Amino acid sequence: MARRATIVGSGPNGLAAAVALARAGLHVRVLEASETVGGGIRTAELTLPGFHHDVGSAAHPAALTSAFFRSFGLRERIAWNVPDAAYAHPLDGGRAAIAWRDLDRTAEELGRDARAWRALIRPLARHLDGVLDLTGNQLLRMPRHPLTAARFVARVLQTGLGLPTLATEEAQALLAGVYAHANTALPSIPAAGSGLFLAAHAHVGDGWAYPRGGAQAIADVLADDLRAHGGEIETGVRVDSLRALDWGDPEGGDLLLLDASPRLLLTHPDLPARYARAIGRYRYGAAAAKVDFALDGPVPWTNPDVARTPTVHIGGARAEVEASENAVAAGRVSDRPYVLAVQPSVLDDSRAPAGGAVLWAYIHVPAGSTFDPTETVTRQVERFAPGFRDRILASRAMTAAQRPAFNPADVGGDILGGAFTLAQTVRRPVVSRAPWRTPVRGVYLASASTPPGPGVTGMPGWFAARQALLDHTGIPIELDDLFG
Ligand SMILES: Cc1cc2nc3c(=O)[nH]c(=O)nc-3n(C[C@H](O)[C@H](O)[C@H](O)COP(=O)(O)OP(=O)(O)OC[C@H]3O[C@@H](n4cnc5c(N)ncnc54)[C@H](O)[C@@H]3O)c2cc1C
């Protein structure tokens, strides 16, 4: 009989692990708490019929460069919309800074900062494979591209320590907006690391591309592939304890992979105390409070380039963005917060009935916050798009406090699977060269709480599956063996 693999959770990492193990010949069963498949990559009619909102991720900078998704053929298997610009940052007075896919255009529009922007981003965009080699795995390794790694680290230190790099308000805001994705204090080294990774992606290949129809398309194509290889998905099954879960015989090579919070491991009766203490030390970070809008037309941005760009970083000048993020890090919600917004309707007419549009937005808030972001986000959008309020047909918010009931992996409403601290760049969730493996035979962690961390890459899931196969068959399996 084929060996069994049970996967708890059907986010991109659970599904990536499931696809890899099913293709390797195991009989795979996925258990998902929610009634629908996809975790952070779901799309649903959250507001009104015909308005399709991304429940979790909306922009997918790293999906097309992920080694797993490249082998899987994600680019070819679903339809993508490719914008001219990755992200826009409106400023008061109708001004804006835009990260065009064309790096030279981006730099030229930054005027006095043209050279500095090129010097900061170009070497990373040109050598993105080296950046991916460094950041796309656990960090306790010798990088395969040491020169690119050194360039990346130098820029992370320079900007993460707040050393003067850029002079203009536009360039500073453009950088602060992409650094603020990390939901941590600014400036900081972890935020610079994730921000430069995202910024480099803006200028390579299709840049920040968007799956037509929404993120659910990614979940569906993974689930289809899994089923085509004999796998099964059971929805509405929440695993609260590993004690009673029947996942087979570890001595016979059966596997259990958790696309879940590492805290679920604490329910395993055989977890060694030392490892349990290490998991107990793993910290979750600040949270997200999200609101989705159904609109009767596009957002009326003052700046026409912002109106064309799907991802918009709202929050004004760099000092304001930093103040907002630092308030959250200190346990408060800013009055004028940084808002991460995505308007997929500018590229994708399947997301709303004719003439309508959807807007996805969240702000950062302290863990467990009950703050409803609807009014604050509306005011921030109005600031750069007067008349926005009048376009709203309906909205639906989810507070940080509500989020864990919706996805148990989002502890306290943290949507990144763990705090972005310097220590946790190597401790995710434990310091190890194989952090996907647990001390319990056959049990592996496969979620964004393991390297390379959050984002829609499938890489934590693939690494967990690869490690599990290596440990239990002794055979090193690579992506080409599964998809070649
Ligand atoms: C609001 C929001 C916005 C985001 N925006 C972006 C973005 O624009 N771009 C980007 O790249 N990333 C974004 N992310 C992050 C991205 O979605 C996650 O990093 C990614 O989905 C993590 O994948 P995962 O498979 O590790 O976990 P998840 O996607 O969180 O999936 C985990 C799944 O496991 C299930 N589960 C967990 N515990 C249990 C249990 N005990 N029993 C049964 N089932 C369980 C959950 O229900 C869930 O379906 C966003 C996330 C959210 C929530």
Report on the structure:
It is a single chain. With 484 residues, this protein is an alpha/beta fold. It folds into 2 domains: 4-42 and 214-282 and 418-483, FAD/NAD(P)-binding domain, CATH 3.50.50; 67-211 and 285-405, Polyamine Oxidase, Chain A, domain 2 (Alpha-Beta Complex), CATH 3.90.660. The chain has 18 helices and 16 strands. The chain has helices at 12-23, 67-72, 74-77, 103-109, 114-126, 128-135, 146-160, 169-179, 189-201, 216-228, 273-281, 304-308, 318-329, 374-384, 403-406, 423-426, 459-473, 479-483, and strands at residues 4-8, 27-32, 43-44, 53-54, 80-81, 85-90, 96-100, 210-211, 232-235, 255-258, 287-295, 311-314, 339-342, 357-365, 392-398, 443-445. The strands form 4 sheets. It has a 7-stranded mixed β-sheet with strand order 7-6-12-13-14-11-15, with helices on both faces. Strands 9-2-1-10-16 form a 5-stranded parallel β-sheet, covered by helices on one side. The protein has a two-stranded antiparallel ribbon with strand order 3-4. α4 packs antiparallel against α5, α5 (114-126) crosses α6 (128-135) and α8 (169-179) runs parallel beside α13. The longest helix has 15 residues, at 146-160. The chain is globular. The model has no long low-confidence stretch (mean pLDDT 97). The structure holds flavin-adenine dinucleotide. Flavin-adenine dinucleotide is lined by residues 8-14, 31-34, 39-41, 56-60, 238-239, 259-260, 264, 288, 290, 362, 407-409, 415, 417, 447-448, 454-456.
